[in-house]
């Protein structure tokens, strides 16, 4: 393997220091009694440095040379000491790997042979020896060793490093039929082949045909049960092609497996996954509950989960907030990753923790999904290697422990790990877990077959977690949401039961992943928190959610891609389901934790904008400006009109409006040049390829420009520019009939935008006391044939005619309509007649005060609008409220008035 080949598989280069995990955790994966001065600790430390500089980060030749020198020095110190075989194997792997990378043409053997590293006498977990063996094959390109190993079993989804090597190797195998290991062949066909729904069902039906429910003394030792469970784990983790056409077959199969196995975790997860993918959410939830129960039972007996990554993954698929939170925290604890707390959510820019967590790609991807937790590296510790002692290499202390925790074993009972071929139940669950976590091709054509299979598995196993998850996933993908929810409920129940017995979940990552798929907010929250706790990831607290710019924790969590993606999806689901009007801290909390994870460019840009947008809503204009300039526009200045528009709006809160006006003019001038070039020979803006949102944002830019001109020079000057508004609309909308409807909302139509244009014109005429022209604009709107009439037309009529009934009508539809509330309050407060002290008038004032107070408590736009709060203050004065209450409200009002912008930031979004 050449350096170019190795580098082509790596993640983008990140300019960070050599962030290495605390080797103590890595060592605990091999032997829990290791201390920092031990030979094994030093060996594992070097081994992780190798992974960090080859797989986790981009290839670093100079560091690899240093690692080889340290490994050679340590290897020479071993000599003929007893009990050093494991250290010797690891160090040979390190030295040999570096030699191959530096000299790709040389035929170098990393270890004595493939069987040596697979030897149990190494004194460590089988998962760890699997890693060593796969690494050997990967770098020496000896595929036949893996192809000929009939006893090879698939690593746990948590073992991100092993899966990285395994997947890279499998992609090089030309014919999967040549693979001797049935489990590996099935894994390759599921993940990299084109195995169809019917083929999966038929395979499992043949597998379970002659098996029976295990006796009590052979639950963990029945060879057939172990084999079935291994296949089920593969289906649970990797299969996603459930189809409605095979639902009956799947149900029969699941039932059959349930009746023939005892609390099989994977079949419950598969059932939850199946029904979730097929849209039968209730069934999916039921099986997911069972999946959680079985994982909890497993935890009670084994003191840890079978595979928390699989649990989180399934919880993500079902979008189960509670289980996502639980298992997400567990994964973060287990991998010792720091999650940004809610109280630090808005400090990520200041702490500069972007992309700071380095862990295997699969785990990283699972961790970043719904909650969008921002995870950071702990930077309060260092490890140094000087001769025989650590001391010369400084590293962030906890985060990259994910490399070790990625290799935690699915099932940890020694009898299961040593005699995997003797336990059919374990094998069945492993296969179901693979389907649950990785299979997504369920089809309606096979829905009956899937249902029969799920039913079969359910009848042959007791509360199988994976089959419940698969069923939930199946019905969710096929749109049977009620069934999906039922199976997901069982999936969670089974996982919780498993936890009761084993004191940990079978696989919290699978649970979170399935909860994501079903968008189950409660379970997502639960297992997300668990994963963060287990992997020791730092979560940003709610109270710090708006401080991420200060803490600068962007991109600080480095974990395997699959886990990273699950966590991202979890945070995103939680963010989309949070109500910004009820608690904006929840939004900052989710966004801050999203930005700690590893995001692709478009996702990062989207949620960085969301963060800045939320800051503008709560009048943190200076922070929003800094965020836009430092995090967004510096890196993405082009084709980003939405961010430029938001920047111009927040800049308009300043006393000097010139910056805001300059931005508006700079964006609008190229369009005017377009008008001056009728042949469009040198178009500065490719209007034909503008999205609907971008066209809309240009119109809003024009609104902003006109309003700033009005404030700076008066309404007469802005009226002179009114024609250019309609010309801009014609340029962007009327002349381009191919503008497509891209959203179900009626706001995503050019007719809706035209209503806004006429409303802007009406407002400007009103400010210039041209009443008839203002009413004429409203008549133009009335003559339009549209499905949706903007309520602000009534508001404008109320302002022009000073008609309070218009505002009352609007508030009847929308009690938090800011324009109506201000308009109605202004009319009431400005009444000057003999009746203004009457009981009726006082009641009107009290009613108005209640309307505004209710709106302020239930709508963030109203809460931070200075003019509305000033009207409320004047109402309090007229009603004779206490001086302390008036003073408190006045202080709040002044602060909001000082930060009021020319346009409300809400206008940026078409919502």
Plain-language structure description:
The N terminus is likely disordered. This protein has 46 helices and eight strands. The strands form two sheets. A three-stranded mixed sheet has the order 5-3-8. Strands 1-6 form a two-stranded parallel ribbon. The chain is elongated, with a radius of gyration of 31 Å. The longest helix is centred in the N-terminal third of the chain and has 22 residues. It is mainly alpha-helical and 911 residues long. This is Cargo-transport protein YPP1. Keywords: Endocytosis.
Keywords:
911 residues; 5 domains; 8 strands; Endocytosis_PI4K-reg_protein; elongated; single chain; mainly alpha; Cargo-transport protein YPP1; endocytosis
Query: Quick one: overall form?
Result: elongated
Strand order of the largest sheet: 5-3-8
Mean pLDDT: 77
Taking the sheet with the most strands, its summary is: 3 strands, mixed
Alpha-carbon Rg, integer: 31 Å
- Can you count the beta strands? 8
**What number of structural domains do the residues give?**
5
Point out poorly predicted stretches.
1-35, 341-356, 368-423
Topology:
Layout: H1 3-7, H2 23-30, H3 39-56, H4 61-78, H5 85-102, H6 114-117, H7 126-140, H8 143-147, H9 160-170, H10 182-191, H11 197-208, H12 223-238, E1 241-243, H13 247-259, H14 265-277, H15 281-302, E2 306-307, H16 308-318, H17 321-334, E3 338-342, H18 348-351, H19 361-366, E4 367-370, E5 375-376, H20 402-405, H21 414-418, H22 424-438, E6 441-443, H23 447-460, H24 465-477, H25 481-502, E7 506-507, H26 508-517, H27 521-534, E8 538-541, H28 548-551, H29 561-577, H30 584-594, H31 601-617, H32 621-633, H33 641-651, H34 658-676, H35 692-713, H36 715-720, H37 722-734, H38 750-767, H39 771-782, H40 792-801, H41 804-813, H42 818-829, H43 839-858, H44 860-863, H45 866-879, H46 883-898
Parallel strand pairs: 1-6, 3-8
Antiparallel strand pairs: 3-5
Helix pairs in contact: 2-3, 3-4, 3-5, 4-5, 5-7, 7-9, 10-12, 10-22, 11-12, 11-13, 11-23, 12-14, 12-22, 12-24, 13-14, 13-23, 13-24, 14-15, 14-16, 14-22, 14-23, 14-24, 14-25, 14-26, 15-16, 15-24, 15-25, 15-26, 16-17, 16-22, 16-24, 16-26, 16-27, 16-29, 17-26, 17-27, 17-29, 22-24, 23-24, 24-25, ...
């Amino acid at each position: 393997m050449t350096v170019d080949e190795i580098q082509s598989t790596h993640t983008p280069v990140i300019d960070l220091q050599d962030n290495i995990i605390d080797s103590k955790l890595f060592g605990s994966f091999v032997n829990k009694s290791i201390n920092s001065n031990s030979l094994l600790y030093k060996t594992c430390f070097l081994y992780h440095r190798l992974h960090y500089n080859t797989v986790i980060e981009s290839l670093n030749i100079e560091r690899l040379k240093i690692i080889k020198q340290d490994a050679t020095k340590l290897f020479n110190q071993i000599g003929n000491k007893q009990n050093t075989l494991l250290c010797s194997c690891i160090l040979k792997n390190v030295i040999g790997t570096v030699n191959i990378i530096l000299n790709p043409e040389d035929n170098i053997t990393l270890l004595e042979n493939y069987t040596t590293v697979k030897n149990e006498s190494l004194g460590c977990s089988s998962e760890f020896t699997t890693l060593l063996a796969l690494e050997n094959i990967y770098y020496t390109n000896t595929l036949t060793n893996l192809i000929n190993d009939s006893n090879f079993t698939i690593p746990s989804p948590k073992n991100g490093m092993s899966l990285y090597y395994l997947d890279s190797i499998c992609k090089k195998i030309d014919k999967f039929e040549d693979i001797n290991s049935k489990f590996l062949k099935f894994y390759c066909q599921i993940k990299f082949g084109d195995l169809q729904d019917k083929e999966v069902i038929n395979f499992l039906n043949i597998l379970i045909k002659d098996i029976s429910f295990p006796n009590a003394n052979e639950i963990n030792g029945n060879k057939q049960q172990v084999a079935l469970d291994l296949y089920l784990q593969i289906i649970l983790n990797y299969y996603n092609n459930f189809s409605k056409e095979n639902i009956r077959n799947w149900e029969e199969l699941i039932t059959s497996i349930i009746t023939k196995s005892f609390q099989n975790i994977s079949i419950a997860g598969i059932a939850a996954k199946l029904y979730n993918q097929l849209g039968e959410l209730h069934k999916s939830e039921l099986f997911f509950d069972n999946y959680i129960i079985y994982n909890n039972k497993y935890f009670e007996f084994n003191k840890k989960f079978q595979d928390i990554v699989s649990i989180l993954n399934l919880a993500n698929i079902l979008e189960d907030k509670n289980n996502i939170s639980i298992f997400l925290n567990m994964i973060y604890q287990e991998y010792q990753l720091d999650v940004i707390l809610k109280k630090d959510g808005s400090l990520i820019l200041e702490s500069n923790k972007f992309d700071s967590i380095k862990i295997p790609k699969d785990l990283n991807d699972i961790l970043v999904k719904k909650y969008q937790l921002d995870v950071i590296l702990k930077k309060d510790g260092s490890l140094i290697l000087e001769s025989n002692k650590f001391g010369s290499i400084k590293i962030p202390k906890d985060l990259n422990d994910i490399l070790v925790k990625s290799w935690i074993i699915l099932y940890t009972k020694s009898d299961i790990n040593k005699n995997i071929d003797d336990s059919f139940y374990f094998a069945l669950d492993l296969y179901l877990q693979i389907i649950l976590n990785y299979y997504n091709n369920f089809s309606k054509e096979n829905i009956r077959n899937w249902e029969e299979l799920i039913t079969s598995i359910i009848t042959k196993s007791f509360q199988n977690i994976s089959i419940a998850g698969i069923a939930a996933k199946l019905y969710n993908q096929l749109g049977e949401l009620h069934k999906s929810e039922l199976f997901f409920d069982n999936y969670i129940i089974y996982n919780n039961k498993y936890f009761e017995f084993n004191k940990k979940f079978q696989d919290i990552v699978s649970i979170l992943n399935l909860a994501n798929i079903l968008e189950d907010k409660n379970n997502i929250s639960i297992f997300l928190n668990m994963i963060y706790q287990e992997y020791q990831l730092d979560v940003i607290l709610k109270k710090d959610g708006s401080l991420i710019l200060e803490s600068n924790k962007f991109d600080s969590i480095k974990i395997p891609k699959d886990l990273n993606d699950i966590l991202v999806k979890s945070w995103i689901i939680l963010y989309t389901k949070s109500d910004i009007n009820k608690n904006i801290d929840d939004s900052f909390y989710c966004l801050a934790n999203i930005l700690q994870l590893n995001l692709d460019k478009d996702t990062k840009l989207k949620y960085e904008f969301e963060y800045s947008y939320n800051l503008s809503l709560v009048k943190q204009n200076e922070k929003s400006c800094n965020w836009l300039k430092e995090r967004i526009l510096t890196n993405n200045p082009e084709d980003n009109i939405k961010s430029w528009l938001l920047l111009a709006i927040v800049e308009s809160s300043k006393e000097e409006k010139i910056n805001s006006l300059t931005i508006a003019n700079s964006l609008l001038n190229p369009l005017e040049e377009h008008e001056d070039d009728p042949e469009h020979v040198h178009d500065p803006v490719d209007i034909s390829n503008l999205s609907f949102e971008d066209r809309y944002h240009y119109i809003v830019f024009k609104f902003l420009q006109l309003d700033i001109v009005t404030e700076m020079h008066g309404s007469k000057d802005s009226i002179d520019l009114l024609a250019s508004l309609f010309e801009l609309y014609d340029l962007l909308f009327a002349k381009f009939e191919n503008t497509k409807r891209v959203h179900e909302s009626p706001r995503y139509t050019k007719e809706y935008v035209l209503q806004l244009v006429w409303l802007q014109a009406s407002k400007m005429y009103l400010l210039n006391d041209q009443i008839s022209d203002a009413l004429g604009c409203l008549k133009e709107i009335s003559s339009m044939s549209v499905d949706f009439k903007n309520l602000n037309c009534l508001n404008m009529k109320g302002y022009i005619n000073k008609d309070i009934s218009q505002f009352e009508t609007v508030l009847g539809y929308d009690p938090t309509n800011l324009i109506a509330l201000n308009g109605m309050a202004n009319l009431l407060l400005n009444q000057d007649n003999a009746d203004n002290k009457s009981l009726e008038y006082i009641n009107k004032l009290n009613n108005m005060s209640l309307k505004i107070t209710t709106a302020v408590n239930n709508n963030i736009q109203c809460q931070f609008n200075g003019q509305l709060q000033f009207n409320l203050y004047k109402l309090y004065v007229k009603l004779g409220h206490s001086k302390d209450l008036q003073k408190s409200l006045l202080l709040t009002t002044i602060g909001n008035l000082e930060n009021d912008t020319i346009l409300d930031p809400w206008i940026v979004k078409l919502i």
